[in-house]
Structure formats: structure tokens, C-alpha cells
Amino acid sequence: MKLALFDLDHTLLNTDSDHSWGEFLVNEGLVDPVHHRAMNDKFYEDYKKGQLDPYAYNEFVFQFLTQHDHDYLTELHQLFMQKVIRPQMRPEGFKAIQRHKDAGHAIVGITATSDFITAPIFREFGITEIIATNAEIIDDKYTGKVTNIACYQQGKLTRLEQWLAGRDVTESWAYSDSINDRFLLEHADHAIAVNPDDRLEALAKEQGWEIQDWSI
User: Among 133, 121, 137, which Cα is nearest to 86's?
Assistant: First the structure.
């Protein structure tokens, strides 16, 4: 297997889907605007600093999911896709995915953001194999908890290794924008820094990794 790994937020997307979901809920009048925005912004700053508690953050995100049924949440996510996500999908991301498909490579979307938010987005990019932070569901209802290991920093590499069990990878590529993904990028044979943050840009230059601009 030759494997291409794609991060989502600020890599395939021109935005952060997790933070954008919180803003979407505020703008739609579905959550307390002051408290929710303050918490959402705080967690996002922690993420950018590389100091996020992924369990605390995802449990904050999942609180809303526990209050509604799947049909409503599916409809709401479709509205989120229409209003927020589709305009932020990077054409260069589609092109990179297609290049790997044309070469016969296996493609995996890998993200710290929850599967609830990201799985429909990855599928719209044509990616069906997805490794994400998983929201626990019991009796067809979200519990508000994270199941398995959060797919963040070193945990992203751990989750990849779980997915790879029994698979033989002969060559790999990884695309990301964030220093939080340095473990994933170091693991890949070919690391590509896409519109990297300052710390990842410095690391990419130090390591001789390719740097690409996918901004729109």
C-alpha cells in the first residue's frame, strides 16, 4: 500500500471546522452566545498554542449533540456545510487528492476534530477512510464523551497505527498545516506543510520538507 494522509482544518479547508461549528451554532441562535463563543475561542487559542486538552474540548462540543436526535443533527450539519464549509473547501486540496487517486494510492483523512463534524466534509472531498476523534454513541444517542484515544498530536499517530494494523505501507505522504501534526509528518516518508503555522514552517525548513500554498 502507498498511503496519502490528509489533515482537514486549514489544510483541505481554508478554515477550522471545529471552531466554525461553534460559531455556526452561535449565529443560528442555538446556544448561549456569550458563554459558548468564549469557551469556543479559548479552546481554539489553546489548540493554536499546542496546549489543547482534546477531551475537555470535545466534551464541550459534544454537549450540544446530546440534546438532539440524529435526524435533526444531520439536517443541521447539512446547513453548516452549505453556509460555512463548502465556500472554504480548497481547490488545491481536491487536486492533491485526485493526484493520489490517479496514482492508485490509498487515501485517509486524519483529524483531531470529531467524526460528527468532519466525516461528511471528508466524504465531500471524496475521502471515505477517516480517522478522527470519535464521539461515543450508546443506544443511538450521543453520550457527550470521547471514545478511543483522541486523535490529537501523538494520539493522531497512535490512531493511525491502530488503523494500519495488518496493513503493509511501502510509501507514505502526509499533508498538514499545524505544528500539532509534527509526529504525523515525521512518520511519513514525504511530509508536506500546507500553509504552515509559524512553528511548522520553521520545522519544515529545518527538515527540508516541501511547503505548499493552497490558500484561496
Answer: 121
Residue 32 annotated among the catalytic residues of the structure: no
| pLDDT beyond 80 at 99 | yes
**Which of 7, 16, 18, 181 does the annotation list as catalytic?**
7
pTM over 0.85: yes
Is it the case that residue 110 has pLDDT exceeding 70? yes
| Residue found by looking up cell 444531520 in the block | 74
What is the homologous superfamily of the domain 2-212 according to CATH? HAD superfamily/HAD-like (3.40.50.1000)
Q: Which of 9, 18, 115, 181 is catalytic?
A: 9
CB 89 within 8 Å of CB 216: no
Taking each helix axis from N to C terminus, what angle separates 54-66 and 115-124, rounded to the nearest 10 degrees? 90
At 112 the pLDDT is 95
Does the annotation count 9 as an active-site position? yes
